[in-house]
């Protein structure tokens, strides 16, 4: 609230004296943990990096997405095609920053604050995959979490990013229409 004492100063001038942003200022889209005065070991921000489309991680994450779609459609009596991965269009991996992965504990939170780091833990990775399925050439984007300890790939969410039109006419469920490619297609 100290910014209310001098509204004539710009946000950058006021930020020299405060640890955050004013409620009256717009939050920048690219705000970092450092900008928000969040210590690096508490920063939850993930960095996403491109990975090879033919890497085992991209292939396994893509297959997990298609398996998840097929398992959801299984309850609909075989009216929808069983989908396969046609093409992996994009693959990225996101992991927590290095200091989060090495953080052990902190001491003296207010005065003489110290942070104790240890060995880097093997991180759980989130994969963002964009893929095309066949038949039908539907484009999906999914997030898959990989736990290296168990080598388990768990689908967190799937979105369809292409139109489905009449290709899912055979199914009534609005939720499943985005996934279904009917075995019998109506002619246009």
TrEMBL record:
GO cellular component, one term: extracellular space
Domain of life: Eukaryota
InterPro entries: DUF229 (IPR004245)
Family annotation (Pfam families): DUF229
Name recorded for this polypeptide: Uncharacterized protein
Name of the encoding gene: NCL1_56404
